[in-house]
Amino acid sequence: MTAAADPIRQFVDYAKTLSGDEKGEAQVFCDRLFKAFGHAGYKEAGATLEYRVKGAGKSTRFADLLWRPRLLIEMKKRGEKLQRHYSQAFEYWLDLVPHRPKYVVLCNFDEFWIYDFDLQLNDPVDRVAIADLPHRSTAFNFLYPIEKKPQFGNNRVDVTRAAADKVAAVFNSLVGRGEDREQAQRFALQCVVAMFSEDAELLPRGLFSELLADCKGGESTYDLVGGLFRQMNSEHPARGGRFKNVRYFNGGVFQTINPIELTPEEIDLLLDASAENWSKVQPPIFGTLFQSSMGKVKRHAFGAHFTSEADIQKVVLPTIVRPWRERIEAADSLKDLRNLLAELRRFHILDPACGSGNFLYVAYRELKRLELTLMAKVHAKFGRRSREAVGTSSMVSTKQLFGIEKDEFGVELAKVTLMLAKELAIDDSRAWIDTEQLDLPIEFDEALPLDNLDANIICADALFASWPKAQAIIGNPPYQSKNKMQQEYGPAYLNRLRKRYPDVPGRADYCVYWFRRSHDELPPGGHAGLVGTNTIRQNYSREGGLDYIVAHGGTITEAVSTQVWSGDAVVHVSIANWVKGEQPGKKKIFTQAGDLRESPWEVFEVERIGPALSVSLDVTEAQRLRVNIESGACYQGQTHGHEGFLLTIEEASAMIKCGKADVGVLFPYLTGDDLLSHNPPAPQRFVIDFQPRNMLAASRYDTLFSRLKSSVLPTRQQAAAKETARNEEAAKENPKAKLNQHHQNFLNRWWLLSYPRPELTAKIASMPRYIACARVTKRPIFQFVSKSIRPSDALQVFTLADDYSYGILQSGIHWAWFMARCSTLKGDFRYTSDTVFDSFPWPQSPTLQQAKDVAKASLSLRQFHRQAMAENEWSLRELYRTLDLPGHNPLKTAQDKLDTAVRAAYGMKARDAVLSFLLALNADLAGKEASMQPVIGPGLPPVVKQAAPFITDDCIGQE
After folding, report:
1. Do you know which Pfam families this protein is assigned to (predicted)?
2. Contact 661, 652 (CB under 8 A)
3. So what's the architecture of 5-154 in CATH?
4. Predicted confidence (pLDDT) per residue in 916-956, tens digit
């Protein structure tokens, strides 16, 4: 016995003296365990007892021991069956962010069950009896002060990888020597089913391996293995011979038998594969076989990457399990429970990009467990007659699962995955009944014959095929960069795709089409959960997918904002779960910070998850600040109300040149599109603005007045007449009805713009320039505009002329507040003065040098704008779209310099989160205003005594 085993042996001896009381002895047990592995105690190691775990919509729970980022221990009383507490441990693990523990241990004072949920679910990676700990301590190598790699005895992922790689080696050899690829794939899958079946005793134990051994001795695989596969597909049992006890497996993968004569090397490879323990192979990650048996070009073209089961549960739990679990828990009457059971057995699940069937496998297993939970509740609450009415047959079937897959081999693999799921689910259900100690006489279907799923899992392009009706849609659609789709799929396919889905932006990621189609296919109340690249929450992809879902009755119920992908693809993903309808209550957003799979996690509870899947701090409680409201520094631009007020540049120039128009009433008119889409930014039309003139004064401008009289006046008369008629009808029904005078007011001053904003124009006239941004925007783009230009109502206008104020507004600090506080229009951010500007706290005590630094950085950014736009012939929108691309970007560098200067002006430390800082500052300033203390608002701070050095002359003018 090693020296290290001595303290472990002492721990084992001590554990024998305990009665196994969960409440009274768990803490001292954990402390002694830490001491056994070289620590002074749990506290000295940095672990916490009774750690609070908060779940969405639930009361606070307590984890027995948490040692971040390595370990969570849940103690149960002696004799307790640990499998019963798997779900609790898994959900604790999900909620324990950031720094989610790597390992989870369940213990009942006699046995440890060790889980690595990133590796495998349901089955622990090891089970260690406490009595065996001295010679099994390597399974706890993670517990030593200096962590070592643990050695587990039940790592099913490793078994699955090894088995899949060995079968793939056979396949690669067959294809390499000229066998037909499709036949080689089918043969490989038939071998997989045979090896699994002999270990699961669906075939006579060891039969397939014995046949291979005989072939190694000189027999023919064409005869023996081919004969076995033919018998597995025969409804007529063999009356004698080697296949006498081989049962009927049904069609599907065995529907076509093409025997292959293997080489001696291939027989050795297959024998090596059959030596693996196939009862430990995990069907949910059979995607390993799927991937390793296909060439890289094809794999990348169809985006077929497998997902870890922990990630699959991030879809299956919120989309299927929790909604059903809540309904089961709420049902008390026999009638309700029977109705739920009948509904569950009719519940259809679709994966429209099913790949190897991993999502469907997990969903099927969970449906089986839900069925058992329902039946167990009936048997526990009601008498014999009620139990008999419900019956004892498990009737949830793989026929309730549907899949669409573009690759033919993927279709066959998915069928095999679900075929195996049937037998494994039976074993799982029996184990669950035993664990729960239920007197539940459930009758399970025979594992054989396997279900024929040819009508359930189909080979088609899901974006053009009909979808089967389903109450839940789940999966991991293929993804491909919008910039590479043309190269990968070809122009003909893309043209067809755009024609079929004209409302999805052309630059959206490929997976976005599945999000949109899934929502359209869902019935009211249906749930969906899909994995996509994290571009689904950004720009064009968000517009085509999640924006559409939310705008058309969808409620996002749980989401992963971003995480490092668990498969082989080097990509960050987002996960969105939603219901087609309303769902009250708190929602969870998870996010992973960093670029490593081990990077820490955060979880946020919010009332609403927006289409950007944002984890930003909730700043809805921020207060409007009087200093901002009274500054008169933020306005919406002018609303013309009628196209008759607008002239083209050519029309206006001709009128001015001929003396038919006066520059005092005719102004260049800048829109958001003019600002963002033209190079250089410039007004493309003029506006007639007679304000503040009365009708008589306006009529002196004969040409322009006549234009409005012939175009605007008739329209406003018609609108006012309709309004009057509606008012008369309303008054007849209710004399006290509040009548609308909107159009009548416009008619009373028909020669004026609908909303001329006289305060705004008066301020502009007194300034050399002002700041403007598009009111509805995807990106923070602010520009100075000449006072000679009238802003349209598509612009948000800031009557500030200095470079410092521009720097504050253009900064990422202001943009973060903008996004968190603004309203939306079709998923875009809409600047609103009352929610965004009025509550935005400006720096309170910048030094003169800090103010100069902000001004200098803002000027440099604008200079870069002009240079880059001129060199590339880009508009501002095109320039800022480059920020969506990876790699070094000088625009980002210039923006970062500005943000650094602005953070310094605020006094933000490097660790300060922007929204948290601003929210706290807002609360502080609101408190000061309430107590009549001075607060600094928009514009140059008091430390600046001379404004002139801060006011340069660059701005948008009229070309």
Report:
1. MmeI_hel, MmeI_Mtase, MmeI_N, MmeI_TRD
2. yes
3. Alpha-Beta Complex (3.90)
4. 999 999 999 999 999 999 999 999 999 999 999 999 999 99
